[in-house]
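User: Let's play a game. I give you a shape written as tokens, and you guess the letters that built it. Ready? Here's round one.
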């Protein structure tokens, strides 16, 4: 029996079936998505359609962090979920990066839904997960799932935008303007063309209206999907108050959510272990539980 199984798994014509589907799909000249689609096993769950998580890395809308991309996608793969990573346009290609990134995320959602049969994706169980600025992007889609104007701009239909759930990790829900001309986050690593205000708000001297476009608290409605959130009290880069305000807005609109605020830990912890740690302070044996907590919560919506 074992011998025949070995032969079956190693026959050339069957090898492709046992490979994870990894491909890079172009959205435009500066944005693309990488797929992490689990193979269709001939041993178990044959032909079963799985949930899929769209991962949005952070990086202050100046870049996209590798630490919050493939390792996150593979982590979701490890618990039986498909995933894709959206590498949305950064690097100051455009002013008002969030606006352009939201359109790219909408296009990404369309690609996922169009390939659902090929990839064996359950279109009723598509989740978005974002970190920091990527969390802002994920939340921005969450508050715009019934926005026909967004659908028209992205060339998609409203059904493409529909989400099962949203996962927000140390998310920038709102932002205060910096001094005009200040390059802001990422400028020590990358040669950035625009100021942080231009990057976030589209102009160097933003008005109250410009700030409100970035702020997602006032955009929450009953149409936002169930949401899991975590943050740390010690985060000095993205203050925890923003996600608290967002949570209150969810409550006011009767949107189910779960929020975990851990006391200790800096911004950008990602998976809190050797998988994503860039320095010692990225290890956190308490906050590391966020992923298991998230999956326990998510099971009510996908199992």
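Assistant: Ready! My guess for every position:
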């Amino acid at each position: 029996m074992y011998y025949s199984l070995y032969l079956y798994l190693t026959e050339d014509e069957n090898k492709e079936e046992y490979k994870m589907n990894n491909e890079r799909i172009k959205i435009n000249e500066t944005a693309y998505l990488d797929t992490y689609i689990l193979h269709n096993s001939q041993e178990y769950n044959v032909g079963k359609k799985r949930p899929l998580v769209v991962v949005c890395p952070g990086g202050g809308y100046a870049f996209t962090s590798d630490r919050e991309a493939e390792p996150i996608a593979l982590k979701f793969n490890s618990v039986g979920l498909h995933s894709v990573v959206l590498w949305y346009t950064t690097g100051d290609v455009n002013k008002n990066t969030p606006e352009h990134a939201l359109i790219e995320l909408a296009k990404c959602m369309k690609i996922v839904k169009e390939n659902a049969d090929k990839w064996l994706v359950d279109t009723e169980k598509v989740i978005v997960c974002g970190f920091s600025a990527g969390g802002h992007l994920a939340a921005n889609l969450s508050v715009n799932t019934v926005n026909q104007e967004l659908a028209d701009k992205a060339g998609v239909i409203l059904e493409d935008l529909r989400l099962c759930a949203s996962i927000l990790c140390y998310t920038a829900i709102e932002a205060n303007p910096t001094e005009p001309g200040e390059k802001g986050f990422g400028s020590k690593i990358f040669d950035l063309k625009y100021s942080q205000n231009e990057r976030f708000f589209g102009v160097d001297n933003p008005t109250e209206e410009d700030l409100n476009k970035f702020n997602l608290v006032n955009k929450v409605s009953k149409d936002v999907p169930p949401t899991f959130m975590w943050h740390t009290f010690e985060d000095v880069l993205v203050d925890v108050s923003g996600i608290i305000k967002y949570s209150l807005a969810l409550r006011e609109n009767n949107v189910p959510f779960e929020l975990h605020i851990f006391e200790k830990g800096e911004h950008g912890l990602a998976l809190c272990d050797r998988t994503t740690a860039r320095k010692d302070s990225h290890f956190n044996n308490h906050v590391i539980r966020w992923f298991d907590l998230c999956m326990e919560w998510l099971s009510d919506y996908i199992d």
